[in-house]
Amino acid sequence: MARVVEASAVARRCVADITAERAKCSFPQHEVTAVLDGGEDKTQQRRKIEELFLSDPEFLDAVRPEYLSHEDRYANELRKACHMIGKFNNDEEIQQLVGQMEGIRTLMGSGLGVALTKDGNPLALHFVMFLPAIMGQGTVEQQGEWMGRAWTGEIIGTYAQTELGHGTFLRGLETTATYDPASQEFVLHSPTITATKWWPGGLGKTASHAVVMAQLYTQGQCHGPHPFIVQLRHQDTHCSLPGESHAGEIGPRLGMNTNDNGFLRFTHHRIPRTHLLMKHSQVLEDGTYIKPHNNKLAYGTMVFVRVAICFDAYRQLQRAVTIATRYSAVRRQSELVPGQPEPQILEYQTQQYKLLPLIATVFGIHFSARSVWDTYNEVTGSMQEGNLDRLPELHALSCGLKALSSSDAAGGVETCRLACGGHGYLASSNLPRIYTTTTAAITYEGENTVLWLQVARYLIKSYREACKGHTLRQSVSYLTPQPASSSASPSNLSNHALVKAFRRAVSHLVAEAAARLQKGCDAGMIFEHAWNSCSVQLARCAQVHTRYFTCEKFLSGVERAEVSEATRGVLTRLCRLYLVFHITNNQGDFLRSGALSPQDMSALEGELAALLAALRPDAVPLVDAFDIHDRILDSTLGCWDGNVYHRMVEEAEKSPLNQKDVPDAYHKYLRPLMKANL
Ligand SMILES: CC(C)(COP(=O)(O)OP(=O)(O)OC[C@H]1O[C@@H](n2cnc3c(N)ncnc32)[C@H](O)[C@@H]1OP(=O)(O)O)[C@@H](O)C(=O)NCCC(=O)NCCSC(=O)CCCC(=O)O
Ligand SMILES: Cc1cc2nc3c(=O)[nH]c(=O)nc-3n(C[C@H](O)[C@H](O)[C@H](O)COP(=O)(O)OP(=O)(O)OC[C@H]3O[C@@H](n4cnc5c(N)ncnc54)[C@H](O)[C@@H]3O)c2cc1C
What we know:
- The chain has 678 residues and is an alpha+beta fold.
- Among the domains are: 155-291, Beta Barrel (Butyryl-CoA Dehydrogenase, subunit A, domain 2), CATH 2.40.110; 301-477 and 494-623, Butyryl-CoA Dehydrogenase, subunit A, domain 3, CATH 1.20.140.
- 56% of the residues lie in helices and 8% in strands.
- It contains 24 helices and eleven strands.
- It has helices spanning 2-22, 29-37, 40-54, 70-90, 92-98, 102-109, 111-116, 124-137, 140-152, 300-330, 349-384, 391-419, 431-443, 448-467, 495-522, 527-533, 535-560, 565-585, 587-592, 598-615, 619-625, 630-633, 644-653, 664-674; strands at 157-160, 176-180, 185-189, 197-198, 209-218, 221-231, 245-249, 262-266, 269-272, 282-283, 289-290.
- The strands form three sheets. Strands 1, 2, 3, 5, 6 and 9 form a six-stranded mixed beta sheet that branches.
- β5 and β6 form a beta hairpin.
- Bound molecules: glutaryl-coenzyme A (GRA) and flavin-adenine dinucleotide.
- Glutaryl-coenzyme A binds next to α8, α10, α12 and α14.
- Belongs to the acyl-CoA oxidase family.
- It is found in: Peroxisome.
- It holds the Pfam family ACOX.
- FAD binds at residues 162, 201.
- Residues 299-460 form the Acyl-CoA oxidase C-alpha1 domain.
């Protein structure tokens, strides 16, 4: 009885701590929620959808996935994923709310979708890549043939590109698709062990079909990687098609273990000619190859997914920083002043420095991802009319923001875990799962270093064009060499002056890298070796350029937001923190370029401390404004009511090991050891 009384006193204290935080809020929270959702109507719509799904008992888990076997975990997530699609297909209210076709994909990738299928969704690749690949790479007739069946779930697909031997280097793929004009078929073949497709999500046991990227051979010539639709499993029995293709799962991974990432090998597997997705390039019946307008159009599906990943990164970071911030308001530890009560750990400036810049990062990614998404729509719109001019810019932007958002989010989630001390290491905090999901995005869809180097390639090319007097695209127009008079230090440190300082720092870095590259070439190195010898510096140019892009979008997003002055106030403080945090962390770039002086740096460091103190009272209100349902957070540490310790104990009691006082393993192993000498 005494224990219960004491426990409820602890609960009351936790709840009181978090309630007191909410009283400090300086802004109308619904406005921030609406900014992030894209409007108050969108907030209402999202909440309604969440309610419809979360109130459905089918989405409840009988036990934590961690306690299930590998196979049962897969079955459990597949059950929920299929129920999700079934619910969408059969419920008109949900269809209207979620929006037609486009909606289910958004739903699966949303915070809700991620929370319903906890450890990876076996159907994710079907929606995230298989359907977009058919839409982006198929002719109208091909879309007619495959899309309807794919939307209803009659066929389930994946995107099989990566092989055991090659993921990054697409031109190195070994799977061949050789056209046979006699039968009007392509023959798919995996000539070596390293040609085995390896990694595609859902390929192991779920997918009946795949878009397979293979080297297209016709009339004795190789035309590079192209997408083909391949049936992998029998339409009625779901059995592998005997002999010609062999698929399976690749085994346990760091996370996302219910995505059944798979392998696939072909032995002279024949598919009809019309299964080559022919929107951009065609093979005629006699084997004649018709070239695309741009030979990188076959990579289009990846451009779309890279943009989508920025939104995933944003949602995962939002969840993690909500958990860590709420926990930091409830957790009390150590003494700030000897003899005084233990403070909330959020009182420590170092803790604020861990969390507040991450709250700001959520907004930074939000505004820049929205901007890249708009560019994606504009560029793909003009591509429909045959204008490919802006494709390189879109490629560079999508690579840069995918790399920046995934590395910021993964680093941020890890910081959140550390900010929760030991308890952040518990599965029930949900931080380990959020981390393993988020860090995967650094690797998939283009490994980040490789993507940074693609951005650098665009920067150097643009810089060289600017030096020749050519006009540059908007996102890199600042690389145009400026007259010496415009290079004085800023007269003030306004937000706009800091963004300008970023521009100058990147221009300087790019000019230096370009000069070093040229020096290598002048010394007789072939361009590629000179490039490799500068690539650490080149990757750095890409990172700082993309950071500049996020700073600019953050600032313009805050300035343009239709909100009250109180909301603009807190958003401006966050934007300021974002700028000051990144500048003070990368002082060398700003000092070397003369964009800022050592005195400016001292002033900004002083301001950093003041910003942390100014934002501290709004920390919990800000994460509350992310408006994430407790079931979507799925964390003992991050729950809305702050009742942390009770939930942790309750979760621990559920461990299968706690169902018996003495486990069977004691009798089998421990007892013989302990009694050996008796
Ligand atoms: C690194 C590159 C880009 C290199 O390609 P390359 O053919 O060797 O090109 P290069 O000779 O270096 O020339 C580069 C040139 O190609 C252009 N380019 C490259 N990619 C694109 C594109 N997507 N759109 C438009 N243009 C593109 C670049 O702008 C360069 O143009 P330039 O020569 O400078 O004019 C490519 O190999 C690549 O994209 N690799 C990454 C592989 C990847 O992303 N795989 C994803 C597999 S699917 C997956 O992971 C799904 C996970 C999803 C989930 O689980 O949710
Ligand atoms: C969880 C998960 C899900 C995935 N899902 C899919 C899927 O559905 N479909 C699919 O087709 N694939 C999928 N993949 C594969 C993924 O796209 C590749 O793993 C990724 O593109 C990286 O390629 P890689 O594994 O060959 O790495 P590598 O290229 O071998 O990278 C290893 C190291 O080499 C470096 N490196 C390589 N090339 C260069 C270069 N040119 N310059 C400088 N450094 C370089 C990299 O930076 C890295 O440090 C998935 C992967 C994961 C982890």
